[in-house]
Amino acid sequence: xxxxxxxxxxxxxxxxxxxxxxxxxxxxxxxxxxxxxxxxxxxxxxxxxxxxxxxxxxxxxxxxxxxxxxxxxxxxxxxxxxxxxxxxxxxxxxxxxxxxxxxxxxxxxxxxxxxxxxxxxxxxxxxxxxxxxxxxxxxxxxxxxxxxxxxxxxxxxxxxxxxxxxxxxxxxxxxxxxxxxxxxxxxxxxxxxxxxxxxxxxxxxxxxxxxxxxxxxxxxxxxxxxxxxxxxxxxxxxxxxxxxxxxxxxxxxxxxxxxxxxxxxxxxxxxxxxxxxxxxxxxxxxxxxxxxxxxxxxxxxxxxxxxxxxxxxxxxxxxxxxxxxxxxxxxxxxxxxxxxxxxxxxxxxxxxxxxxxxxxxxx
Length: 363
Description:
This protein is α/β, with parallel strands linked by helices. It has two domains: about 1-130, P-loop containing nucleotide triphosphate hydrolases (Rossmann fold), CATH 3.40.50.300; about 145-360, Rossmann fold (3-Layer(aba) Sandwich). It is built from eleven helices and 13 strands. It has helices at about 15-30, 40-45, 65-100, 110-120, 185-195, 230-235, 240-250, 270-280, 300-310, 320-330, 345-355, and strands at about 5-10, 35, 50-55, 60-65, 145-155, 160-170, 175-180, 200-205, 210-215, 285-290, 315-320, 330-335, 340-345.
């Protein structure tokens, strides 16, 4: 359409990595005005030249990308708090003088002058720190060293072969991110590992002490549409107590009246957040995820990354959030038309090794 301006509401949410990077390059060369909301840190760092923060009904503008905004916000917050504390000390001193001398006729003029002075002062409010979502999740039970093993696995859909003789071994505390273009078989691999799909040939086995959780679109089926958010949590964890469950719900964006919403009226994103909250509250030792950050804001993403960084279990996941990939992966499985490639480091090392952020961009 060649517009003069673009208004984009979370444009990266449902794009694969190749499409997201293409969009970044397009927007970097776009000559019109761009106004957007986003929860993708890397995307904002590469595209935005100004950040508008909405806080307590006020708009504050910061020049620069998201990372620079974070730095400037921290400096502004520190300066505001120092200014607030200086003013509070001054006010306390003035109020003490007024209290001590208000009954003395000899100081009446001074007292009145200071009262008028205080009435005219613009009060500095205490600095409001950026929201930090925090929740302490229970540790996962320990699994054996062998978590999942695929031997000679073949899988086809009609005439299309996805895997032919695949061998793949997942060991305890490995965090595999699965890379590949659309249709390469990323979701199929997770389905094979979790047992939601059967191989045409070969075998798939999991360790006897593995407690697994699989987060994908069908995971929403565990919700009871007639229960409220809180009732769903109570039903799933009847011995947990109200306070921890309310704290858990708050971490994932269900605060105030939101906790009384019926599950059947929740949006797709809200359902995803509720299921993820349930998975984290009762931790498995093997997590399989498909795009876990799609419907999360930045504060919740950071909470999730912090929680999973301390996670003692094993992970196998597909994600298009580069911050999430870099923070949590320690192994990369790349699915290509030429076969499967394994990289011993995480996503950051994968980018350094291949020179590209996604397989589909490689020449």
